[in-house]
Amino acid sequence: MIDILIVEDEPIIAKDLMYTLKDLGYGITAVCRNHQEALEAVNKKKSDLIICDIHLEGDDWDGIRIAQEIRRNHDQPIVFLTALADSSTIARAAIVEPDAYLVKPFEERTLYAAIELAINKFSARKAPVQDAAAKSSLAETIPFIAGSFFIKDKKRLIKVSAADIYWIKADGAYSQLNTGNQQFFLSTNLGSLEEKLRGNSFVRVHRSYLVNFQHIDAIEEDVLSVGTERIPLGKIYREEFYRRLQQL
């Protein structure tokens, strides 16, 4: 589940936002009315995304300053919520490089669109783009933020932690991702996913498979047991597999 921190001083709007997010399938880490509550909440429990009102009544900080402070220590997507869409406010907000804007009054579809845009934009901004070819294929990849994939499922995004993934299998131009009790088919090739997962506990064991070392149950000569799947260990990947295994 994608967890969202709300910073909004108007109780009615905060409740409406909270209930709408829950209806869309998102989780709520906290609802904050001022900068003190927001900074305490963001340090207490990590959120996947922050929705922050720009104008906070009775607070000597506004949402822009809160976002600046959060960005110093916590790199995560930020959506600004505002009733003020004038050019001067937008210009000040742009300095923080928010990942989306949401103008009051909002609707469910615009809220969902803002969240999806923010996650994709943030992921694209953080992804290492090596060349023009990689840049052109970026739109076909799925967001990967802080060790989790954000996978589109019908009308919402689902967070899948890399640690929960058992194996990923190439399926033509697609990839099949398995978490033991769930499967997802992604319009992303295995090479792109391998690059995103570099530095995590994943290793290529076959031209069609990436596996998570943490979920390997047994190793035979040329076969790995990962959950209920028996995965071939290709000859050309064997040396690197055992080298990585010795490092664990």
Report on this structure.
- The chain is of the alpha/beta class.
- The chain contains 8 helices and 16 strands.
- A 5-stranded parallel beta sheet has the order 2-1-3-4-5, with helices on both faces. Strands 11-10-9-13-12 form a 5-stranded antiparallel beta sheet. A 3-stranded antiparallel beta sheet has the order 6-7-8, covered by helices on one side.
- A hairpin with a 2-residue loop joins strand 9 (167-171) and strand 10.
- The protein is elongated and about 65 Å long.
- The model is unreliable at 129-140 (pLDDT under 50).
Radius of gyration: 21 Å
The succession of helices and strands, N to C, reads EHEHEHEHEHHEEEEEEHEEEEEH
Mean pLDDT: 87
Structural class: alpha/beta
Strand arrangement in the largest pleated sheet: 2-1-3-4-5
The shape is: elongated
Give the helix proportion (percent range). 25-40%
**Measured distance between first and last alpha carbons:** 29 Å
Number of strands: 16
Unreliable spans: 129-140
Beta fraction: 25-35%
Number of distinct helices = 8
Largest sheet: 5 strands, parallel
